[in-house]
């Protein structure tokens, strides 16, 4: 537990819809929605929200009730590009950030600002993000990650809310359903006991909360009292490496789910290679409705210690095919190393054909990593990460530019044409 | 402003074409030129313009801007009273003086013309 920390939560406002408005200026100020490829509204612009569009809503329902709202196909590669840019810009202000989900970033700004100066600090960051990304973000600041996240939702779009340790009572009227980490069942259970707001919960002594409720809620109560229990996911010096990604809207088809796994496998392998480590086994997992808090996992052993995404992805894909269930609503995917990591491989006296192939993959990965570094961390993805998106290209948004004679798109967002 | 420098300051003495072209990679976008409004500035239909979203633009910059609800790419000019307007580089196009709004979206920092499909 750390005393007097300052956390910041940067949250993209209606992020997917905003990315579409950023890359197609004709849609600025217009009601648009995203999700055409799945036949449901998964993200909506503020203008569409103002009309009364809600999510989820079926395409048919949208067309019937709100014919003036354009429904675009999602373009996850575009959103990833904007997400990377958002994180790059935040990282120039503070190096301690967590990857978070696609439309948000947490930062521990304790070392680079003070409670006295944090408003000016956050305003400068917000101004830079909004200008450079061509969309708006809201920022919340608080003594814990939980409070920062609640604060960023106070005022939107383009809000800045600072909750200092001296004024935590401003949180007391916030309904617990708006608190990250409180799921539907917990909320119901608490409501049954007359505990509906943060204030209701914090009236109870910490010891009583510990007696009556489970550990996550005890931790949450500490966080809401201003004592930081949760810390940013650190990126270095870890004994295990993992990556978890939650989705804004559940995924139900195999291919987009595979894409998400592939991205996370890439991320894990990149972290492993940065540590010059290999894993002997890999755990893949998911969270799905209705029990969204439980991570279901499977562990697969690698034939040899590996940090190659291609090798691990083919193992994971086989496993994923076995556990995938149609009509399940997947909420998040997880990829992690299992067991102790192998650091450095010893040079063998005699090399086999497999060793040669491994060496080639290592060389390729080194090149990929150095490219990533040279490009300031722009996302290079495996073909399998891209597979799911091909059918989404013709969806009415401004697509990313294709690189001729390849399956790639250019890593600079395209704004269409102008006269 | 706080900062850790740009990725170009990485200690190596050789930089990439990309680092040279993109002063601020996280703020740079591609837009394609449709029409001949900037022909006299050697910007032809089909050219790709690298556009940087920034607050610092000066008269004389080529900018992407919203003027009274329309998006165009033009030279940013200032008249004697310091009022901003937009000008094409082609006599066939009129000067654009904002009636209600002029919002600068970004400035054009390079023009790319690719030959063939390679």
From TrEMBL, chain A:
SUPFAM superfamilies: DNA/RNA polymerases, Lesion bypass DNA polymerase (Y-family), little finger domain. GO terms for molecular function: damaged DNA binding; DNA-directed DNA polymerase activity. GO terms for cellular component: cytosol. GO terms for biological process: DNA repair; error-prone translesion synthesis; SOS response. Residues 7-183 form the UmuC domain. Pfam families: IMS, IMS_C. Transmembrane segments: none annotated. PROSITE patterns: UMUC (PS50173). Belongs to the DNA polymerase type-Y family. This is UmuC domain-containing protein.
From TrEMBL, chain B:
Gene3D superfamilies: Umud Fragment, subunit A (2.10.109.10). Residues 17-109 form the Peptidase S24/S26A/S26B/S26C domain. InterPro entries: LexA-like (IPR039418), LexA/Signal_pep-like_sf (IPR036286), LexA_repressor (IPR050077), Peptidase_S24_S26A/B/C (IPR015927). Pfam families: Peptidase_S24. CDD domains: S24_LexA-like. Coiled coil: none annotated. This is Peptidase S24/S26A/S26B/S26C domain-containing protein. The lineage of its organism: Bacteria, Candidatus Kaiseribacteriota.
């Amino acid at each position: 537990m750390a005393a007097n920390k300052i956390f910041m939560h940067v949250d993209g406002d209606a992020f997917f819809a905003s990315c579409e408005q950023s890359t197609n200026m004709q849609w600025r100020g217009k009601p648009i929605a995203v999700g055409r490829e799945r036949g449901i509204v998964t993200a909506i612009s503020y203008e569409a929200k103002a009309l009364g569009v809600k999510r989820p809503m079926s395409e048919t329902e949208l067309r019937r009730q709100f014919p003036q709202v354009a429904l675009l196909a999602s373009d996850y590669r575009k959103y990833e590009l904007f997400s990377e840019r958002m994180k790059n810009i935040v990282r120039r202000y503070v190096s301690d950030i967590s990857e978070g989900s696609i439309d948000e970033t947490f930062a521990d700004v304790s070392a680079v600002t003070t409670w006295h100066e944090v408003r000016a600090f956050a305003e400068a960051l917000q101004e830079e993000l909004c200008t450079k990304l061509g969309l708006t973000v809201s920022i919340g600041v608080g003594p814990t990650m939980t409070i920062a996240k609640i604060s960023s939702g106070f005022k939107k779009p383009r809000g800045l809310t600072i909750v200092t340790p001296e004024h935590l009572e401003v949180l007391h009227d916030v309904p617990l359903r708006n608190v990250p980490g409180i799921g539907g069942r917990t909320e119901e259970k608490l409501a049954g006991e007359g505990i509906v707001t943060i204030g209701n919960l914090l009236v109870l002594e910490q010891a009583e909360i510990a007696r009556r409720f489970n550990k996550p809620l005890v931790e949450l109560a500490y966080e809401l009292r201003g004592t930081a229990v949760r810390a940013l996911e650190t990126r270095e010096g870890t004994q295990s490496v993992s990556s978890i990604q939650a989705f804004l809207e559940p995924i139900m088809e195999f291919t987009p789910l595979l894409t998400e796994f592939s991205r996370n496998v890439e991320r894990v392998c990149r972290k492993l290679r940065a540590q010059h480590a290999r894993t002997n086994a890999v755990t893949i997992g998911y969270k799905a409705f209705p029990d969204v808090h439980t991570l279901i996992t499977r562990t697969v052993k690698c034939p040899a210690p590996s940090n190659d995404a291609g090798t691990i992805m083919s193992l994971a894909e086989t496993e994923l095919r076995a556990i995938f269930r149609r009509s399940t609503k997947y909420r998040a995917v997880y990829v992690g190393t299992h067991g102790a990591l192998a650091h450095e491989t010893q040079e063998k006296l005699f090399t086999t054909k497999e060793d040669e192939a491994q060496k080639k993959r290592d060389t390729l990965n080194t090149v990929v990593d150095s490219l990533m570094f040279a490009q300031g961390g722009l996302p290079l993805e495996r073909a399998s990460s891209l597979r799911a998106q091909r059918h989404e290209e013709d969806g009415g948004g401004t697509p990313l530019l294709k690189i001729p004679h390849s399956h790639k798109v250019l890593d600079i967002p395209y704004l269409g044409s102008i006269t | 402003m706080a900062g850790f420098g740009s990725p170009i300051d990485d200690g190596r003495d050789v930089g990439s074409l990309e680092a040279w072209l993109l002063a601020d990679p996280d703020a740079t976008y591609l837009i394609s030129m449709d029409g001949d409004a900037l022909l006299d500035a050697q910007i032809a239909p089909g050219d790709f313009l690298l556009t940087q979203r920034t607050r610092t633009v000066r008269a004389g910059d080529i900018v992407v801007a919203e003027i009274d609800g329309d998006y165009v790419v033009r030279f940013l000019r200032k008249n004697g009273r310091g009022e901003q307007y937009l000008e094409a580089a082609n006599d066939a196009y009129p000067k654009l003086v904002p009636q209600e709004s002029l919002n600068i979206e970004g400035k054009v920092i390079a023009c790319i013309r690719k030959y063939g499909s390679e």
